[in-house]
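Figure-free illustration: sequence to structure, shown twice.
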Amino acid sequence: MKPALFALAVLLAPVAAVAQSAAMEPAVLRQTVDQFLQVQTAGLPGKVTVAVGNIDQRMKLAACPAPEAFLMPGSKAWGKTTVGVRCTAPSPWTVYIQATVSVLGNYIAASTPLSQGQPILETQLVTMQGDLATLPASIATDKAQVIGRTSNVSISAGTPLRLDTLRSKPVVQMGQQVKLVSSGAGFRVSAEGKAVGNAADGQVVQVRTPGGQNVSGIARAGGLVEVAF
């Protein structure tokens, strides 16, 4: 080896050794997971607290300038979860880190027993506070989401209310005289009819016309049914 090349190799040897021995800091992994979960839960109604699990100090991962966090398909960003962190360069690796995400916020519960099919009144509701991450995703967080709706089942006092078990207040009821309306570019047609069933706003309902024909349309407030022709 030429003297100049030998000298250069001697100078670069310590740098190469340092680069080879550089390892990913556990603190950086924890920060990556924490920031990722903070972003994922930014829209949740409540105060979010992220607790990242311990990382095995014996695990040696090559240093990564841009670690990327991700969730496995079907995983949630709240409650007890697992976040993946991967590196694509200079040395590819993937590691999975456990975390717990708590969401302290308000939710709506029944203050008195609620009967199936009966419209829910504000006096029958109470606002409570707890970890929303431990409750169903469809939990009601505002009384306005519940008032006037009916439950598919009887509910005991103290039970959190789930929106997926509640029916919206009907805007069209069976036997009600309604107005069938259809509109388009430059025209609007209307006719009278009688609702064959109950329907909330936006739901499909059948209407019997004076001629005995059944027509399906979208129920709207004010006794209107929108029909597409």
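We now fold a second protein in the same way, so the two outputs can be compared directly.
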Amino acid sequence: MLCKGEDADLDTEEKPAAKAKPNDILDSVSIAAFDLDGRIFRTLWHSLTRTPDVALAGAKGDFSRYLSPIRVFVALFSFQFVVASLFGTPLAGSLDQLTVSLEPEAVEAWLATGRSATGEIPTAAEVNQTIESWGAMLLWPITIVTALPYLLLLKLYRPGVPLWGHVQFFLTATNASFVVMIATIPLLLLGLGWFSLGIGFAMIVYYFCTGRIIVRFYSHSAGGAALRLLGLFLIMPVTLLMTGIGQILGTSLTLDMNYDLSLVQLYAPDLE
């Protein structure tokens, strides 16, 4: 539960640092070279081990010890694509994933119905690259939209806290699970089953960190905290469905705009 002083400071926004004086140049360089790195690792580690403290600092706009949860989220969101590319794992979908259950002849026949910008029949590699590129860009709006149910529920739990504070609370727990999820990407080398276990563990970390935030800021009792955490857990299928629909619509739009290809024709040619 927020104490009185903490509650009053939640609407504080991050303010720009004061302009450095000439005689502070060495100190500024030292801070840029060492303290920033220290804050990065401290923020990541404490997001896992001291989640409420990082969340509260973000809600207050106090970034003396920790980086903003938003900045950390953006960095981790981008970094996951770097790690995934190293292990050849597209995170935004690919033609190979779309056609894994289809015969190669059916896929070739479907590709023959499309046209690239030059008027030529697109190759599987070309379509694959386009789906991955556009999918990576579309993941941003999809992620924002699918976060709304969580934020609305948190706002319902504690209406007096500004939405900015709820965003910081949500992102802090998300960042903690992101760290674990990125670390599990190499498990794909051992097989999809191992990777699935890693993703499951990342979800456990998310709800554990969220539970700590619920206990600290949203509930006066253990029973109330359990019910609030259960509410967040129950909307997970909704957000997963929203994510799936968003990715399907994004892929369909990408294929239509770039190659005049239809997903309906791919899966149900008789309906086209």
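Summary for the second example: Confidence is low (pLDDT under 50) at residues 11-35.
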